[in-house]
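Hi support team,

I submitted a single chain yesterday and got back a structure, but I'm not sure I'm reading the C-alpha cell output correctly. Could someone confirm the output below corresponds to the sequence I sent? I've pasted both exactly as they appear in my results page.

Thanks,
R.
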Amino acid sequence: MAKIKLTKNELKTQRDAMARFQRYLPTLQLKKQQLQMEMRRLDQEILEKRDEEQEARAKLSSWIQLYSEPIDLSPFAEVQTLKTSLGNIAGVNIPVLDNLVFKEAVPDLFETEAWTDEGIRVMKQMTRLRVERQILEEQHRLLADELRTTTQRVNLFEKVKIPEAKENIRVIRIFMGDQQTAAVARSKIAKGKSA
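Hi R., thanks for writing in. Yes, this is the structure output for that exact sequence:
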C-alpha cells in the first residue's frame, strides 16, 4: 500500500477515487459478460465450421480416387476478392466476412474429365469454409485478448483499488478523529491552566 497523506484533501481524493472505481466497475463487468457470451457463440460457430469441413472431406473421400492422375484444380478455385469489413463487439473491432469471390475460370471440356466440375465446386466450398473459419478464429483471438484485459481491470478494481481506497479512507478518518480528540483535550488543558 502506498504512503498516503493524512489530510482532508487526501480524504476527498480517496472518496472521489472510490466513487469513480465503483461507477466504472459495473460497466466493466457488463463488458466482460458480453465478451464471454460472444466468445461462447464464436466457439460454437468455429466448431460448426470445422464439422462442415470434416463433412465435406468425408463426402470427398468417396470419389477422390477418380483423381488418381494429378490434376491441378487450383486455377479454377482461386480467390479473386476477399472483402471484409470491421464489426464492433463491446468496443472491439473485429473482421467480418462480407464477400468471397472466386476467379471465373472454366476448364477445357475436351481436355478434362467429367468429374472436374464437381472437384472445382468442392474445392471452392472447402476454400470458403476455411476462410470463414479463419475469420471466426481471428474474431475469437481479438475478443480473447480484450476479455483478458477486461478481466484484469475488473479484478484490479474489485480486489485492489476499491479495498485500497476503503482502507485509506478508514485510516485517514481514524487519524483525523484522533487529531480532533487531541485538539479537544489540548483546549481543555489550556482552558484549565488559564482558569
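A quick pointer for reading it: The chain has two helices and two strands. Let us know if anything else looks off.

Best,
Support desk
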